[in-house]
Write a structure and sequence with these properties.
Rossmann fold; alpha/beta; five-stranded parallel β-sheet; pyruvate-formate lyase- activating enzyme; OB fold (Dihydrolipoamide Acetyltransferase, E2P); six-stranded parallel β-sheet
């Protein structure tokens, strides 16, 4: 008897690195069940869109991706199933089931571990379109094999899921559940596996990495976890993302300064600097605390690269309060900075505040801060001309005047700049030294030494 061909699956992963890890876990589970992943959607039997539903722009991107697939399916050129997973499905799956009939299945964030079972139902004659939304309690472990992109020198490692901070503008606790930390041994086993696969850089991620361990009885510390991870052979760089300023400790900063493998880099989303806005956001941190943490970090960690994220146009952000934020950006001189315009999310406390700000004004404020940051970034980057930097080579350059593209220790993937390199004798995935010969607002350019 001729064996039936296994159904292939293509993933479209949207949103943050944490969502990407969920996609990799689901791909691994499906591969284990006999369904290989494909690089493109053209020949896939099943297309899974792992969506983001955090803010308006992310929701719009997710919906556009779903509707594009739905339109292709309506044309009838080929038969394939559409599964919508992730944050958008968790928030709106039941409503979207009626609105987008081309989607076969909606599954929420709590169903990541059950993806193989859900996909199996698609083949049954008794299958009926469904939206399966459960409590968001899934937490991966090192035994979840992740299908990851080939020829990638770095890997994200999620040390926790969910969030218990309950910021007034944020729907993440409702989408992802309360904070759930993985056990240290489990995380270290995964880090060992990633190192064995050849990944040189491990990027620590979670909704709030600095809240790690607070929900566990043993109360493990992030600093201890990082020290143990740095002992793993094969790992060259460790990078920390999503550090809440209310939870950054001197112990953590000292560990980072004393551990060579930990990049002198912190992603510290402060969101705002005005105390009234911070209070209204329920950030549980004051402007004084934020300034103290930044000063302490820069004092303890030599050559620190500091990234932050801001929200402009939050309800009640008067012109004076905005100018206070703009002045703070000007004086603090962050190495990297991103700005979100406030998104009014249903179900959040901030959505009920009456003093909402127009979309046009929110955009104007965002543009003002990003213009200021471009000047700051350009000045900082100019200061690196003539210096020697370590660079992790990631790919061939798309610029004809440079051979390779990669990142130095002060650059995180996708959100920061790129370092372009000249020099033929180098391998993708290797860490080389280069001399910086030029710089622009966000990127560096160098010669391999």
């Amino acid at each position: 008897m001729k064996k039936e061909k296994s159904q292939s699956v293509h993933f479209i992963s949207l949103g943050c690195p944490k969502n990407l890890i969920d996609s990799e876990v689901m791909a691994g589970l499906l591969n284990k069940s006999g369904r290989p992943s494909t690089q493109t959607s053209e020949n896939a039997d099943i297309v899974i869109v792992n969506t983001c539903g955090f803010i308006d722009a992310a929701k719009e991107e997710s919906l556009q991706e779903i509707l594009t697939l739905a339109e292709e399916k309506k044309k009838g050129g080929r038969q394939f199933k559409i599964v919508v997973a992730g944050c958008l499905a968790q928030r709106y799956g039941r409503e979207l089931l009626a609105e987008i009939p081309e989607v076969d299945l909606f599954i929420g964030t709590g169903e990541v571990g059950n993806i193989a079972r859900h996909v199996n139902t698609l083949e049954k004659a008794s299958f009926r379109r469904a939206s399966i939304i459960s409590k968001p309690q899934f937490l991966m472990n090192y035994q979840h094999h992740r299908i990851m992109p080939a020829k990638t020198a770095f890997a994200y490692l999620k040390i926790s899921d969910g969030c218990s901070n309950c910021c007034s503008y944020c729907a993440i606790p409702a989408i992802r559940g309360r904070a759930r930390s993985r056990m240290p041994k489990d995380i270290l086993r995964e880090a060992e596996n990633l190192a064995a696969q050849g990944f040189k850089e491990i990027i620590i991620t979670g909704q709030d990495t600095t809240a790690y361990g607070k929900d566990l009885k043993s109360r493990p510390r992030l600093s201890g976890l990082l020290k143990d991870m740095a002992q793993i052979k094969g790992i060259k760089w460790i990078r920390l993302l999503y550090a809440h300023p209310a939870h950054v400790t001197e112990e953590l900063l000292t560990t980072m300064a004393d551990t060579r493998k930990i990049c002198p880099y912190i992603d510290l989303p402060i969101q705002h600097i005005d105390d009234d806005i911070l209070k209204s956001m329920n950030r549980r941190v004051t402007s004084t605390k934020i300034k103290t943490v930044i000063a302490q970090a820069r004092q303890i960690i030599p050559n620190l690269a500091l990234r932050t994220s801001l929200i402009v146009g939050f309800p009640g952000e008067t012109q004076k309060r905005f100018e206070r934020l703009l002045d703070f950006v000007h004086k603090t001189k962050f190495d990297h900075l991103g700005v979100f315009t406030y998104s009014r999310e249903e179900g959040t406390t901030a959505a009920k505040i009456k003093s909402q700000i127009s979309k046009k004004e929110k955009g104007r404020r965002r543009d003002l801060i990003m213009s200021e940051q471009a000047v700051i970034s350009h000045s900082i980057n100019q200061g690196f001309i003539g210096s020697v930097q370590e660079v992790l080579i990631e790919e061939k350059s798309d610029r004809p005047d440079f051979d390779f593209a990669g990142r130095c220790r002060r650059q995180a993937p996708d959100i920061d700049g790129i370092t372009y390199l000249k020099g033929a004798n180098a391998k993708i995935g290797s860490i080389v030294k280069c001399k910086v010969i030029a710089a622009d607002d966000y990127d560096l350019f160098g010669n391999i030494i």
